[in-house]
Write a structure and sequence with these properties.
By secondary structure, the protein is mainly α. It is 69% helix and 0% strand. It contains nine helices and no strands. The chain has helices at 12-32, 38-45, 49-55, 59-81, 87-103, 106-112, 125-143, 153-172, 178-187. The longest helix is centred in the middle third of the chain and has 23 residues, at 59-81.
Length: 192
């Protein structure tokens, strides 16, 4: 999986600064939500605001970078799980984790749904990487007899999109994780 940003390579110190800003931004967004400012992120990172602006000229650019990084981790996790000993457990665990984690962030849902944000255009590298990773995870779980054979990777991605929306609503009524689990039950192979 490659970096889906279009930035040119950075010097080592600039790359470390950028990674530090992304780490602090991710922590701040998780704790404080979208109200966090670039100034506050710079302060928490121990940098001047100019350092943050050099890498992320707007708050939106920083938010998109954080979200893209999270989406790329979902892809990396799916790829890593494609060789797990229990293919069914790996598939269903990945599906539920993505649905539960992404459902808490509307912007991340939009990114995974092919809506707004970098790498979200149909045919983008992120979308292709996700399709490939989900396809491999699914195929292995189907060969193991854990997942219905009539499901395609496109079906799973559509179900994931539905799970994101369902989880957002369920979370609001205190039932986080329930909708993803129900969808997983529908994807399980049954005895004929």
């Amino acid at each position: 999986m490659g970096d889906h940003s279009s930035a040119r390579p950075l010097r080592a110190d600039a790359r470390r600064n950028r990674e530090r800003v992304l780490q602090i931004a991710q922590e701040a967004l998780a704790a404080d939500g979208l109200t966090i400012s670039l100034d506050e992120i710079a302060r928490r990172a121990g940098f001047g605001v100019g350092t943050v602006h050099r890498h992320f000229p707007t708050e939106e650019a920083l938010l998109e970078a954080v979200l893209l990084g999270r989406a790329e981790r979902f892809v990396a996790d799916a790829r890593a799980l494609a060789t797990a000993e229990d293919a069914g457990r790996a598939f269903f665990g990945w599906f539920c984790r993505v649905a539960e984690q992404a459902a808490a962030h509307q912007a991340l849902c939009d990114l995974l749904d092919g809506g707004a944000g970098p790498g979200s255009r149909p045919g983008s590298a992120l979308e292709a990487d996700l399709a490939d990773a989900v396809g491999r995870l699914l195929a292995r779980a189907q060969r193991a007899g854990a997942v219905r054979r009539d499901l395609s990777a496109d079906d799973v991605r559509d179900l994931l999109r539905g799970a994101l929306a369902a989880e957002r609503h369920a979370r609001g009524r205190g039932a986080a994780g329930r909708m993803a689990a129900v969808m997983c039950d529908g994807m399980r192979a049954t005895a004929d």
